[in-house]
Write a structure and sequence with these properties.
alpha/beta, 8-stranded mixed sheet, binds uridine-5'-diphosphate, binds magnesium ion, membrane, transmembrane helix, Glyco_trans_2-like
């Protein structure tokens, strides 16, 4: 296929980004105007309560390649990405933050890797400007930990900034996962994967929409959708505590020591292990419960900028 006839979709999840969205649109339009390929920008408004959607609609008067899908409420970053790639019609789809933390210029490197024959090209962060040490340390720990306990290989230090070939997008669109962890799903589908290094910048405006609670939820989704190790851990903890208490009983009988205060300690320990294991089982059970309800993953209230009524691909 000629570069001139290739269509690249850029998917941008948006949640209350009014402070910087116009800047993002300008930068992307300037960038894409100088590229040989055709581009479409697909914004997913994830239930913003500010002017984000209005600003995007306004920009459609000047740019014919801007499309907007609006959710009926906030469904979360991962579902916004999921919807975005279903509405994309490009030969390749790039997902990036709407806050310009992922520099558009990196897309050139991603496209050339794609032309070399890679189906997934990850953006690998070699530097993270303006993010707290807490975020960097927890993210690094999470990705390393996840790699240890899952059989799929999620590349280290990558986020959601990546290019995917149409074939990969097709396979992803067939996966109807509640609480998706898109990074893991992309690794899971396979194909030829490569990465390009980039320096992640500071946000141009606004503040992070990922508070600790959302980060923890994403981490839990990552773990429970790809690993059974925490469930098995409950077995190991249980076995260990039974052996420990038997050993302790033997020791107490032999030495006839006063065990009163140690008893308190062991009760707390056992109850802790039990509750932890129960909680873990509960998390998996809840996933099954959610999947069994078969609700739609997200609800679209409105689409604008599409030529025909869009038909999201779910296969
Ligand atoms: N986002 C979203 N829904 C949410 C939270 C975030 O669509 O519930 C968007 C947000 O507007 C941004 C991207 O997802 O374009 C990544 O979020 P953010 O930049 O706040 O995360 P960070 O880069 O700080 O990890
Ligand atoms: Mg960001």
């Amino acid at each position: 296929m000629d570069k001139e006839t290739e269509l690249i979709s850029i998917v941008l999840p948006v949640f209350n980004e009014e402070a910087g969205i116009e800047n993002t649109i300008d930068s992307l339009e300037n960038f894409t105007a100088n590229q040989p390929q055709n581009f479409e920008l697909i914004f997913i408004d994830d239930g913003s309560s500010d002017q984000s959607a209005k600003l995007i609609v306004n920009s459609q008067a000047y740019h014919s390649n801007i499309k907007l899908v609006q959710f009926s409420r906030n469904f979360g970053h991962q579902l916004a990405i999921t919807a975005g790639i279903r509405y994309a019609s490009g030969d390749a789809v790039v997902v990036m933050d709407a806050d310009l933390q992922d520099p558009p210029a990196v897309i050139v490197d991603m496209i050339s890797k794609w032309h070399e024959g890679y189906d997934v090209v990850y953006g690998k962060r070699v530097l993270r400007d303006g993010e707290s040490w807490f975020k960097k340390v927890t993210a690094a720990m999470f990705y390393r930990g996840l790699q240890k306990i899952t059989s799929i290989k999620i590349p280290l230090d990558t986020g959601d900034f990546r290019l995917m070939d149409r074939q990969v997008v097709h396979e992803l669109s067939r996966m109807n996962e509640t609480d998706p962890f898109v990074g893991g799903m992309v690794s899971w589908v396979g194909f030829k994967q490569a990465d390009v290094e980039y320096e992640r910048r500071e946000r141009i405006a606004g503040y992070s929409k990922y508070p600790l609670t959302k980060m923890i939820r994403l981490a839990m989704d990552g773990v429970t959708s790809f690993s059974a190790v925490p469930l098995q851990l409950a077995n190991w903890l249980g076995t260990f505590s039974i052996l420990f208490s038997l050993g302790y009983l033997g020791f107490a009988l032999m030495t006839q020591m006063d065990t009163a205060h140690f008893a308190v300690f062991s009760i707390f320990l056992m109850v802790g292990i039990l509750l932890l294991s129960l909680g873990m089982i509960g998390s998996y059970l809840f996933r099954i419960f959610e999947a069994s309800r078969k609700r739609p993953l997200y609800i679209v209230s409105k689409t604008t900028g599409f030529q025909d009524p869009p038909s999201p691909k779910t296969y």
